[in-house]
Amino acid sequence: MTCIPTFSTQEGPALKKLSDAVDRFCYRHPRFGVPDLMRFIVIGNVVVYLLAMFSKWSAVSFLSFSLQDLLHGELWRLVTFLFVPDNTKLLVLAISLYFYYFIGSTLEREWGTAKFSLYYISGAVLTVLAAIVATLISGWNVTVSGTSYVNLSMFFAFAMLYPDAQVLLLFILPVKMKWLGWASAAWFAGGILWSLIQWNPAGVLLPLIALLNFFIFFGPDLLSFVDRHRRRYSPKTVQFKKAVRSQAKRAQEQGYHHKCEVCGRTDTDYPDLQFRYCSRCAGYHCFCQDHIFNHVHFTE
C-alpha cells in the first residue's frame, strides 16, 4: 500500500475562510445571479459595437466608467462599462467574444449560476474599485472601458480548472490551457513591472485589485500548489524517500509494511486499512486512517 504524505492546510487561513464563505453563500442562495450571464454580456458588446460603427466610438464614451463622471451623477456607468468592446477590429472582437463566452458558459456549468455570477460580478466591482483608488492616488481621471481584467480573471479560473484542455492557437497549433495560463501570468506580471518602472499607479492597481476575485476563489488551491512543489524539492522530501526505502527493507524482516503508531495495527493484519504519514510530526511516523488526524504530534 502506498504511503501518501499529508499536507497542512493552515497556510493562508484568511484566503481559506474567504473561499469557504463564498461556497457557503452560493449553497445558501442557489438562485443568486443571472442564468447564462455571458450571453447577455456578449449581446451587449455586439449592440455597442454596432452603435459605434453607425456613429463614432466617441459617441459611446458615455458608457465607460470614471470616478469624475460618477460624481456627476452618471450612475449607469457602474454597469455599462461591461458592454464596451475591448477591441475595435471586428474579427478580433468576434473571436474574443466567442472564446470568453465559451469559457464563461463552461465555468457556469462547472460551478453553477450562483458561483459564476458572483465571480463575474465581484470581478466587475473590483475593477470599479481599482479605478476609483487609482484615480484618488494618481490624481488622473482613470477611465475603464470593457472587461479585459474580468476576462483575464475568467481565463485564469478556466486554466486552473481545466489545465489540460487544448485550444488551437491561431487556429493551427494545439496548446494546453495551463501553458497559455503561464504565458498570460508572465504578461500580467510584466505589465505590472513596466507600470512600476514608469510610475503609473493605475497600471499597477487596476490589474492587482481587479484580479483579487481570482485569488479569493483559488487562493487555497494556489497555496497548496506552491506547498507541494516546495516540499517536493525540500531536504525533508529527499529524507522521506530514504525513509520509505528503509522501511521497505525493514518490512521484509518484520512481515508488514505499515504499522500505526497509536493502535499498533498493521497492513498485514488489516489489508483494507489505509495508512498515512503525518507531515507535522518530527521524523516519519505512520498512522492508520482512524488516527492520522487524531494523534499527538511527535516533536522529537
Please give the structural blueprint.
Elements: E1 4-5, H1 13-28, H2 37-54, E2 65-66, H3 67-71, H4 77-80, H5 90-111, H6 113-138, E3 143-144, H7 148-161, E4 166-169, E5 173-176, H8 177-197, H9 201-210, H10 212-232, H11 235-254, E6 275-277, E7 286-288
Parallel strand pairs: 1-6
Antiparallel strand pairs: 2-3, 4-5, 6-7
Helix pairs in contact: 1-10, 2-5, 5-6, 5-7, 6-7, 6-9, 6-10, 7-8, 8-9
Give a brief outline of the structure:
The chain is mainly α and 300 residues long.
CATH level-1 class of the largest domain: Mainly Alpha
Contiguous low-pLDDT stretches (5 residues minimum) are: 1-11
- What is the CA-CA span between the terminal residues? 26 Å
Mind telling me which CATH architecture of the largest domain this is?
Up-down Bundle
CATH homologous superfamily label of the largest domain: Rhomboid-like
What is the number of domains?
2
Rg value? 25 Å
Q: Count every beta strand, where a strand is a DSSP E run of 2 or more residues.
A: 7
Largest sheet: 3 strands, mixed
**Global mean pLDDT:** 80
User: Any idea of the CATH topology of the largest domain?
Assistant: Rhomboid-like fold
User: Strand order of the main beta sheet, please?
Assistant: 1-6-7
Share of residues in helices:
55-70%
SSE pattern: EHHEHHHHEHEEHHHHEE
Helical stretch count? 11
Share of residues in strands: 5-15%
Overall description:
59% of the residues lie in helices and 7% in strands. It is built from eleven helices and seven strands. A hairpin with an 8-residue loop joins strand 6 and strand 7. It has two domains: 12-230, Rhomboid-like fold (Up-down Bundle), CATH 1.20.1540.10; 235-288, no CATH class. Residues 1-11 have low confidence and may be disordered. The protein has helices at 13-28, 37-54, 67-71, 77-80, 90-111, 113-138, 148-161, 177-197, 201-210, 212-232, 235-254; strands at residues 4-5, 65-66, 143-144, 166-169, 173-176, 275-277, 286-288. It is mostly helical and 300 residues long. The strands form three sheets. The protein has a three-stranded mixed β-sheet, with no helix packed on it. A two-stranded antiparallel ribbon has the order 2-3. Strands 4-5 form a two-stranded antiparallel sheet. The protein is elongated, with a radius of gyration of 25 Å. Helix 6 (113-138) packs across helix 7 (148-161).
